[in-house]
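Reviewer 2 asked us to include a model.

Predict the structure of this chain.
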Amino acid sequence: CAGVLRAMGDDTRLRILRSLLHRERCVNEIAQELELPQPHVSHHLQILRNAGLVEGQRDGQRICCRLLPEIGASLTDQKNPAIDLGCCRISFR
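Predicted model (structure tokens):
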């Protein structure tokens, strides 16, 4: 879990994960929502992809991202969503 927790140990990446908790979003949507430049968001998404938390799919010129299905399956409580990594559980309030 150390690599995954290291990837999640950044405020911007936690904000991106929170944004992806309920639905897939394109990089530009995330950038607008978080009021960050698109290259900055892309950089952080790459780190999350490398950690095995997020996957991206190209749709023409857009890249849409979502939590990996295994991660999304652990989101059972929609009022207090949490990512269950097996070794620990990360709650989003």
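Residues 75 and 81 are 6 Å apart (CA to CA). The chain is about 45% helix and 20% strand. We have added this to the supplementary material.
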